[in-house]
Structure of Branched-chain-amino-acid aminotransferase:
Amino acid sequence: MQFEHIPHPSPLSDAEREAILANPGFGTNFTDHMVTIEWTDEAGWHDARVEPRAPIQLDPAAAVLHYAQEIFEGLKAYRHGDGSIALFRPDQNARRLNASADRLAMPHVPEDLFIEAIRQLIAVDGAWVPSAEGSSLYLRPFMIATEAFLGVRPAKRYKFMVIAGPAGNYFKSGAPAVSLWISDYTRAAPGGTGAAKCGGNYAASLVPTREAFSRGHDQVLFLDAVEHKWVEELGGMNVFFAFDDGRVITPPLTGTILPGITRDSLIQLLREEGLEVSEEAYSIDQWRADAESGKLVESFACGTAAVVTPIGKVAGHDGEFTIGSGGPGQLTSKVRERLVAIQRGTTADTHGWVLTVG
């Protein structure tokens, strides 16, 4: 597919861009351009263009506004030491987007088109990829239903877009480990959309997340919807538990949690360290008991934005407990360093996970 390029009439100056890159924050600054591709029942994907970032014009009856047909992905572009720009496992993001599309009755985006859209954006906005340690260019591909109608059925028109923005650390700097609040709310139920990366899942998490923040915690922890006892995931991250006998557990993919790409990568890296990694249910009561006995030595959360983040404390209405020393553990630090080294090109990529795009 050919991409039309529409130049930005007034992009930010080099000085303005460098000022932002010096302190990018997360999710508040954006590059000059975006990618847009249209889909209709009749023509499929067409009208691909790289254009100046601008507001989207939508009819007030657009299906996304009334029936929430919307899905998205999140991945990062990294500046390597030789100046090149690389993505980490973008094929997996493309496949997960299409799995989300299946659940929300939306069209697939061909994997090569998904990756080419990102290439096209980086080709014009590559100067926005920062080089400072811990920084990256966060990419947000997403799809929305744009057909104007009122009626409960899948839409017949969609828009796939990619926007991007420089990113620093997701959590506040200086925090040795995050603190979690056990929510009374549930994130997803069996048969629901828990495994899809759709906006509705995150909208439902905002009240419990706000509650966690108001109680002085960094993130919310969700338990299962049926028994409200099994650990599922954080507000936007998967979770791992490491034990003193070398075992590591992470909750299984049963359709109620997001199949994280960082999660899958860590499972492989941990097994390469000689650890026994299993995907099995783990209760909040067992977490507390194992932490208090010392059997559990570390817990950590993971995701594209947060990378690998140690969990220091878990609190709820029945009190709180601390994991290990309450700070980063050796395994958490080691596996994070291995993952980041692959992403940033400072160690050999023996898995074929890194794709150079600029």
Q: What stands out?
A: Residues 38 and 46 are 5 Å apart (CA to CA).
